[in-house]
Design goal:
Length: 266
């Protein structure tokens, strides 16, 4: 009788765990399959794998997420649906990026179609967000732009440590920084951020560690071993097919946070 009771109890626990996993995945599946998503976004899903990316970083309803250099808003919209009405997404662009995607964002945010999204236009070194306010930050295909130096001067020089420190201060202790970018060859200089629109992930890890972020996980879900890391990201036939690294960092909990028994999003 006792053994049977334990067995039934174990089945109940496993069932509850399974249902919880399904429930946790449901909101991401629903976000990706939301019928309101633009057709142009859907065409990019095959190489961006949004369901796997959002699941890897454990995006959850109720979160406050900052989309750094959000561009046209592909991930902003997905995050908006995933965090739900009780969550919030802050979509950041600098002025140069905003001008570049102005037609796209005009359609994206027309008639307040994403009501839980707040837009912020600010240069990297002028970005001001409340301290310890974000549960998660997304920085997708943009870290290399720290080293972008166009001849026309339309892209203001970014003071790297200041910019990264602003991000660090805005993230809650225990919060997540998601970084995805085009991979440069190992040992490549920082200048490939400008010349190839790529960056060596080792550089990203070193620089973020210096600020205080800690790398806790990485994924190969966007890897492409056939990619030639010496080619420009905009090379013919390569757009959307680059080898991309996926890195998960956290802002470590302080002793005070732990003693206060805070439970930030993992």
């Amino acid at each position: 009788m006792t053994v049977r009771f334990v067995y039934i109890s174990l089945l109940a626990v496993l069932s509850l765990f399974s249902n919880t996993l399904l429930a946790n995945n449901d909101f991401i599946t629903q976000a990706v399959n939301n019928p309101a998503r633009p057709e142009s976004d859907l065409k990019r899903d095959s190489h961006r794998k949004p369901a796997q990316v959002l699941s890897f970083f454990k995006v959850r309803p109720g979160m406050t997420v900052v989309d750094i250099f959000s561009g046209g808003g592909y991930y902003t919209e997905l995050l908006s649906y995933a965090v739900g009405p009780k969550g919030k997404v802050i979509a950041h662009n600098n002025q140069a990026y905003e001008d570049y995607v102005k037609k796209m964002v005009a359609l994206r945010y027309k008639d307040k179609r994403l009501p839980n999204v707040a837009r912020v236009i600010a240069e990297a070194n002028e970005l001001v967000l409340p301290n310890n306010s974000a549960d998660m930050m997304f920085m997708v295909l943009a870290y290399h732009d720290i080293y972008y130096r166009p001849k026309d001067g339309n892209w203001p020089t970014i003071e790297r440590d200041d910019f990264l420190q602003r991000m660090y201060q805005s993230l809650k202790p225990g919060g997540t920084l998601a970084v995805i970018d085009h991979k440069a060859a190992p040992g490549s200089p920082r200048s490939t951020g400008h010349t190839l629109h790529r960056i060596d992930p080792a550089i990203v890890i070193k620089e973020l560690n210096k600020i205080g972020f800690k790398l806790v996980d990485e994924s190969d879900i966007l890897a492409n071993p056939k990619d030639d890391h010496q080619r420009h990201m905009y090379a013919p036939g390569l757009r959307g097919q680059t080898d991309r690294f996926v890195l998960k960092f956290i802002k470590p909990l302080t002793l005070d946070n732990q003693l206060a028994n805070e439970t930030p999003f993992p």
